[in-house]
Amino acid sequence: MQRPVRPDIRNRLLAALPKGDYQRLSSHLESVPLTPRQVLYEPGDPIRHVYFPESGVISLLAVVGPNKAAEVAVVGYEGVVGESTTLGIHVSHLRALVQAEGTALRIESSRLRKELGTNSHWFREMFRFNNALMSQAAQTAACNQFHTVDARLARWLLATRDRVKSRNFHLTHAFLSVMLGVRRVGITGAAMKLQKLKLITYSRGNIQILDPVRLEAAACNCYGVVKEIYRLSHGK
User: Which CATH architecture has domain 12-143?
Assistant: First the structure.
């Protein structure tokens, strides 16, 4: 069953909250900018704030060593970052890094716990979102193991497009290599292949998706799998 949302609230999880619950939170929500390369948490950091993105994209990365990290999931307006604190986990185990600029509504984690407490609706929403997030991470791990870099890059560009709601965004080869966990030369080759097929243009970090339909056909099936996971998590 599809859950009602309010179109005036840009974050989907907040929009799905009952009106009274949202009103209790609203006076404690602070609008903050999300700037590219901004780190919200590092592994081991206490989770002092919870972020509800309204626009932009936040990448969650598993850090395996100095200068070694790979993306396991992305979060946009459909979700929340730092929500684990309301479930009793108060330390981040991942790096939360802003991938594409935007804005978020931020609240102190202690205030969120106080306001929502053991609210059954909130916990139901959180478990649905966390299930989708864990499924995305598992699918990403399998994708990184079995699919080609160009198919993974196509999948990643489409996922970013969905969250920024634009075919145009700025991402460097260096950043993409971290996100996909491959060397820069691999990203260069994959981007050149997609560009040669006239699916994208890529110049000095500026990416434009030219043909979303054909780009989706070039992407691995993980794009559709994850999209369906989130569709079901929102009761649609």
Answer: Sandwich (2.60)
